[in-house]
């Protein structure tokens, strides 16, 4: 590990380089290699002029490639850079220009202050900016604001140029599967080998195959994508919905829009989102040779819509989604069969077929109940819940509120049944009395008040009951999942034969 040393004793000054490239910078030829070479040459000349030793280790070159719409302080390379700065791994940070450092003035100033607080000297070569000079923050803010304004103007010019290019029937970006790009005319031409695969995909879908089944069949046949990868369910779905295959160019279906939101620290952040704006869409029919006719494309679109309406979403809470992993390491996702039985299956198998993973489906209720039982046993054994007391408004209060809502809903259903003559008065009084008793007991458990400044609750009294039996109503299942994800980091399946076995990794150190 390289340790930063003070330049006062004649030791080498350790330099880091930050480089970033986006679509706009690539247009102007401001590549990553160019930025890094530019900074290295500056360090060499600075060392020669000052008769000092400036070194730039390869491991201290931080690169962000094509990341847009993300706050600077959340980019992977920036996070590593700040972590290394806090540990004193370098003395100087070099960047080609403030426009490369950050496009947002607030982000740039936050970054500068963070580095200065770590004792790092920040140098932007194009602007001749040096944080060791007087009024450095004032000068930096002006340069950063100018860079942000120029970035926004460049973005508008690039978008307008791309829209005009699309209107003339020329293609923006990489060619889609089944086509190649003529570099001279900038128009799409049919790639005969890949075109056969695309036509096969459309034909298979109309023949009744789903996107996953098509991907699995192609992978089993050894047919790969244009870039040599396995076919996925998502890629098949995108092909079936892309009007490029009936000869059309539809550019601008998604447009960048700036919005402001409150970040985790409470500070308002600026963020770029993709939105749909009909006014920004450029539609050019017959821009290039079609791979499928319009009737086939329309028939596929109709079937896709039918399946989308049939599938829908039930808003269910699945306990192990995002927590459980298959034997191959893939995430487990849910799948419902024709009899409305819910299963967990491997996400890699769902995307790429059984070529990627051969694990069988697992009934959701069986797996969830088994995991809950195992967690309950481990919690009782390893966590001193009976000795722990919490104060305030814990999840137990939320659980009481949920149960109260359920009882009120049952009363409303009971009264509706009595009102329509489905229940006699005697039956209504009997069932209503039971509900009132349960509601009174619930009010007693909550102290008969809506809110307490402080309440003491033994963790065991409310955690363990939630780990006993799988809850199936939405609100109770939500509480159960919150408890589970607080305790559990990962559930990893390790075997299916003869019985399902799993390894559970806990967060006990964090509880």
Automatic annotation (TrEMBL):
Source organism superkingdom: Bacteria
Coiled-coil regions listed in the entry: none
Resolvase/invertase-type recombinase catalytic domain location: 14-169
Ranges of residues in domain Recombinase: 176-310
MF term (GO), any: DNA strand exchange activity
InterPro entries named among the record's database cross-references: DNA_bind_recomb_sf, DNA_bind_recombinase_dom, Resolv_N, Resolvase-like_N_sf, SSR_resolvase, Zn_ribbon_recom_dom
Protein name: Site-specific DNA recombinase
